[in-house]
Amino acid sequence: MKIAVFGGDKRMLFAAKAFYDDGHEVLLTGFDSLLSLCGIRVCTVREAATECDIAVLPVRPVTDDKLFAPFAKHPISIAGTIDRIGQKPLFSGSAFLLKPYDAGEIYDYSADEIFTLRNAELTAEGAIGLILNEYEGAVYGAEILVTGYGRIGKVLSGYLRMMGAKVTVAARNPADRDMIICRGMTAADYPEINWRRYQVIVNTVPAEVIDRDAVAQMREDVFIIDLASVPGGVDVSAAKDRELTCIHALALPGKTAPLTAGIIIKDTIMNILKREELLG
């Protein structure tokens, strides 16, 4: 099978290599500074789209109507790329971003359970790395609040507890709060949070749950990380007004563990191909 990988960050380089290591012929485009990568052919968008059997776009494929390709020398039209791919099987993360571009059927690998679970582990690990590298205090004994108890919140809060932090998790679902307590942590609903108590606050909710009023109550030396996708869950302007440390940590797996993240993309796509009986 001939697989074309279009643009993206380092994750897509490692995904391309993982496909190649599995025995597939791989075309790579959007990485103009590369002359070659192992036995992978680096080529133009036109060549990749014309010759491939399946096309793979990045986890977040579009930025300002252009293919997300930070290593390309010139902007690449996402509409033109999709048009050239035509009716070939198209795999992309965040497929909803491609709706304006008249794409055909898209297989959204970022919505697949395999991807979301394994990506949550990498995101949690990356968040802990940020805390260890950027927060000036110790994790052990620190009062840490995690907002949200989805996939990332579950993994992250468990890791932090094992590291000796005093972990509180904010969750709206009463059943989630019961589970949080069963796992040896403190549970809270949002109206009852004492924001000033926490030295570190990590948001995982993709909606504003930490508003200006919450930020106003925080201690001056708080360390805030927002893991949620744009626009995030923290009122960043309020944090800036108070000169609080607030990091919007987007696409952490691509920055902290691109090799493993790339393998996860490859594994997920191969599972979808098998499930949809698209393997020749």
Task: Give keywords.
280 residues, alpha/beta, Rossmann fold, six-stranded parallel beta sheet
Topology readout:
Blueprint: E1 2-6, H1 10-21, E2 25-29, E3 41-42, H2 45-51, E4 54-56, E5 62-63, E6 66-67, H3 78-85, E7 90-92, E8 106-108, H4 113-134, E9 143-147, H5 151-162, E10 166-170, H6 174-182, E11 186-188, E12 200-203, H7 212-216, E13 223-226, H8 236-241, E14 245-248, H9 252-256, H10 258-275
Parallel strand pairs: 1-2, 1-4, 2-3, 4-7, 7-8, 9-10, 9-12, 10-11, 12-13, 13-14
Antiparallel strand pairs: 5-6
Helix pairs in contact: 1-10, 4-5, 4-10
Q: Compute the CA-based radius of gyration.
A: 21 Å
Secondary-structure content class: alpha/beta
- How does the major sheet shape up? 6 strands, parallel
Q: Give the count of structural domains.
A: 2
Roughly what percent helix?
Answer: 25-40%
Instruction: Enumerate the spans where pLDDT stays under 50 for 5 or more consecutive residues.
Output: none
GO molecular function: NAD binding
Organism: Ruminococcus difficilis
Domain Dipicolinate synthase subunit A N-terminal: 2-93
Protein name: Dipicolinate synthase subunit A
Give a structural overview:
Helices cover 37% and strands 18% of the residues. The protein contains 10 helices and 14 strands. It has helices at 10-21, 45-51, 78-85, 113-134, 151-162, 174-182, 212-216, 236-241, 252-256, 258-275, and strands spanning 2-6, 25-29, 41-42, 54-56, 62-63, 66-67, 90-92, 106-108, 143-147, 166-170, 186-188, 200-203, 223-226, 245-248. Strands 3-2-1-4-7-8 form a 6-stranded parallel β-sheet, sandwiched between helices. Helix 5 (151-162) links the parallel strand 9 (143-147) and strand 10 (166-170). Helix 1 crosses helix 10 and helix 4 packs antiparallel against helix 10. The N and C termini lie close together (8 Å). This is Dipicolinate synthase subunit A. Residues 2-93 form the Dipicolinate synthase subunit A N-terminal domain. GO terms for molecular function: NAD binding.
